[in-house]
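# step 3/5: fold
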Amino acid sequence: MPKVTSEEAFEAEIEQHLLDNGYLKRRPQDFDPEIALIRDDLTDYVKDTQPKIWKRLQDLYGDQAGPQLIDAFHKEVRQRGLLDVLRQGFKASGRTVQVVTFRPAHGWNPALDAEYRKNRVSVARQIHVDPKRPGQEADLVLFVNGIPVVTAELKNPLTGQKAAHAKVQYQGDRDPDAPIFRFKERALVHFAVGSDEVWMTTRLARTDTVFLPFNKGDGHGAGNPSVKDKHRTHYLWEEVWQRDSLLDLLARFLFLENKEKLIFPRYHQLDCVRLLVKKAREHGAGSNYLVQHSAGSGKSNSIAWLAHQLATLHDAQDQKVYDGVVVITDRQILDSQLQEVIDQIEHEPGVVQPIVKGPSKSGQLAAALAARKQIIVCTIQSFGALAEKLDALTDRRYAIVVDEAHSSQTGDAARDMKEILGASSVAERYEEEADDLAAPDQAVLRAALARGPQRNLSYFAFTATPKYKTLQLFGHRGEDGEPRPIHLYSMRQAIEEKFILDVLQGYTTYERYFELVKKVQDDPRLDKKKASRALACFVDFSPENLRQKTEVIIEHFRSTVRRQLDGQAKAMVVTASRLHAVKTRLAFDRYIAERGYHDLGVLVAFSGGVVDPDDPATEVKPWTEPEMNRDPVTGETLPESRLREAFDTDRYQILIVAEKYQTGFDQRKLMAMYVDRRLSGIQAVQTLSRLNRKKEGKERTFVLDFVNQRDEILESFQPYYEATTVEQDIDPHRLYELRNEVLAFRILHESELKHFAEVFFAIGAKADRKGNARLHAAVDPAVDGFKALDDDAKDTFRNRLGAFLRLYAFLAQAVPFSDVDLERLYVYGKMLQRKLPSDGEPGDEVTLGEDVALRYYRLQKQAEGAIEPVPGVEGELPAPSDVGTRSVDAEQVTLSSLIDQFNERFGTDFDTGNLVESVTRDLRADDRMRAAAGANDRDNFGYVHDRAFDKAIIDRLQHHSGFVNFLFENEDALKWLRRKVRDDIYDAFQKERKAKE
């Protein structure tokens, strides 16, 4: 009997569990390493399940029937690959021979179920795997009907070895040309197994073998959780290798990507798909599910597997759960991935129906739905004009799989989709609630019901960065009542498992220092917000700013990035606007020409045409993306549709973008990002995550940020580093409060709302000139009433109406409202909002180019190094404000004072961060400060704080003499800094006190 701490004991324990749960035991001598098969198991399976074919073989070949069968199997596997032969069988003497029976989707055919049980799933230990090298033995091999499908090397840490040693063993000792290890021909996946971790690969290539983690995750990080009386990796043999699970993996998960890469699901993908399928089978249509999987974690494959299994899913009574699956995505690549996966599993044409670009998208979608296509892939906008092209979809149930779920799922496009796919559910609820309503209100009720959850629709929403609204709509509520993802593969786990790169590790921030001066004698009074924007643009587009940034970017790329990935590394420049992208591209072209850099290709991406105020020619012929991306040799323009392909070639290294390619862009050679726009929240995470894809040789990334502060980026990433939830719910009653606030202005009247709704719902989606005129006429009195309001009231009304529309569009998706009053105000308010006169004409914008000059400009590196999110902190998203942040008063300031504010903030060159931080830290640690804050209001606390603050500043005179002298020579600056620190400390002490109470 082996020692309990030995590797042999580890093997025996796993083997015994498999044998106790349906596996058959096979001896090492049963396996023939020359052909990598257990001959008898394969021939016996054919004899048992296909007696007619076996008899034909015997009639033809007599005693050689078995060898002839094996020879035919071997030849077809060499030609087509084992996975295809497992699923489709092979030809022997003119007959198709099946080598495995997979479990049917339903129990309608008992004979198939009986054949499924005849599969010989077996395990063997220490088998000789290489006919050319005696002594080469695999620790564990799993077989299906004599065909090896899984190999495993096991290591017991109690002997001083771990899973990492098993990986080295595969890379150093296993010959990829040995029959059992030949790619696509025999064993399909290889596991390196320890008692703590599991890794897997589908292709052995000696030292080039790439192993992927196959772990559950431990506390949202890498590894596996401890389990009482079990190994941390017990799930591998108890769940994944379980008999039915192994056959299911072969039947519905493994596939070849581009014919040369065999995909085996990682644990989080397999666990997620199976969990969602289980929930759908148990609960049927009508439930929503949210999946939070890190960017770069393989969501596309997870969606493909899930869509296929939902399309064939049957419940416990063998009834089909869904009549169809609709995949909502903006990514064309998902069409081909779905098709590739499902073609290999089904071998049936037409299972996936993509709705392709073109003028007839709604017609394509209508035809696909009418034809009951199993899986339809489209954008959510495809449903917008569908109603008049499609008859009612009665009594149908749909699974809606949403790729990159975001707030567009709360808008009118989502309502259109629900109204069409949820028609039977709406009709059922309409019959329950419409009896006591007048005919016009019945139409309003139907529209309101279409917005809410539908009994015949299930949503499966995938995202790496759920918004507050996404969590509320699709999240499941745990014991604490907060909405959460039903399945999580966190950014932290993906980084720690080295499946994606940490884009915050190589983060460098720059600060710009400049001084603006007034060139005119008068001092005009200007709108502060507009003037601030104008001054910012003046600095952004100044030749000196563009020149310095261009030099930093290009020289950094050439010196640090270009040589990565054997010279194939690429970079992205993220700009703040389309005009910014144009001017950046022109600055790049000038710099490259001046320096004679002939080995640097640049592309730019933006939508539409751009007029450059500094170039009168663009008034007639605006800049366009194809025009700026001309081939330097032929002069031909590059169509937008070919930009991705062109950027992937060796000709181009840098891509300048404005609002494009910041989400859903998967370019694994992208190693550097130069950020020249404000980023925050989800936008920051999604944009920077373009860098995180792994590629051979890509071990790090580079970010140079010219705009954002490090703490701002950390604040953006923290909520999505681990699990994400919400801080608080929104009270649905707030809708009624907002409705009352809107009506309180007395420019909307109930009679007009009812009249508008009657006309609106009578017209429906059809064009009707007379009806359209009646709609406008119904809204015009409210427009006239709005014009009569004073400016403050106009702003307040506009804010309250906008808040109501946003909140209703969101809450009506999550809460089953059936209130005709709310729906009436919503449809009326949408049109009224569009007709209200603008609060600012284009000519009102402030231009300061002739009045302001840039006297001084310098770009300086501020900080570099890793930005580290805090582990163990759950991300909580705040509820969105329902009334917006619009300022009622446009503050008026003089131009000179505004320039002073800019120079005060950016024009000095003091390194004050450490000083202020240390002063604040010392004062917060002072018990006298804490006592004073507890006994005084904010103003009285200042008497104690300010003296201590001044002393602390003076104590640091030796190391910060320039800044300290500046403060005490400039009383306003000293007062401003005192107040900032005082408020921060006072608020911190008050928060501590309330927490203790």
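# step 4/5: annotate
Residues 883-911 have pLDDT under 50 and may be disordered.
# step 5/5: archive (pending)
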